[in-house]
């Protein structure tokens, strides 16, 4: 067991007091994201964190992806093992669950960032930078970065999975968002032996993990 379990300041709730936003364009974006987008529930739902539950999950979770389905399994109090798949996460976080289509490809992503007037000089990089975007789109991706990434630094960068998510939200494309999110969770967790028997364990995606726990333990 880790000496200290540290819940990272990531996976925030989106801005809640929308009516206080003076800029009308930003207010419209916030209202759309919080109430009418493909990710409204995941963006705007607060939760009370239970550190004991999160510690048990994070220090027992293993990658159990198979047959092209992303998933992880973990132990809950009492010794029962729970498996959460991308389909479970779609249900728990109120993402779409049916009639899903493929993720946007690289050409579509580049066309999207051209359409929203990105001034980035080199498109063929791993991350687009939000400060090259116009202010409304900067706000759009700023919100997604704070909610859906595990970034503690470099909050200007828009990583590839978030480019796909932003594209899907803007175009209302029904992609498998649960898979995108679980794959990022697994990437942040790393192998189980790197989260046990060490001094500190950093817990990423605490809010989403607690929403998962609340669902499976109720």
Question: How would you characterize the overall build of this protein?
Answer:
This protein has 218 residues and is α+β, with helices and mostly antiparallel strands. The protein has 9 helices and 7 strands. The strands form 3 sheets. It has a 3-stranded antiparallel sheet. A two-stranded parallel sheet has the order 1-7. Strands 5-6 form a two-stranded antiparallel sheet. A hairpin with a 5-residue loop joins strand 3 (71-75) and strand 4 (81-85). The longest helix has 14 residues, at 135-148. The two termini are 26 Å apart.
Strand-residue fraction? 5-15%
Shape designation:
globular
| Helix fraction bin | 40-55%
What class, by secondary structure content? alpha+beta
Please outline the major beta sheet: 3 strands, antiparallel
Query: So how many helices?
Result: 9
Strand order of the largest sheet: 2-3-4
Number of strands: 7
- State the end-to-end CA separation: 26 Å
| Rg over alpha carbons | 18 Å
Mean pLDDT: 90
Report the uncertain regions: none
- The arrangement of helices and strands along the chain is EHHHEEEHHEHEHHEH
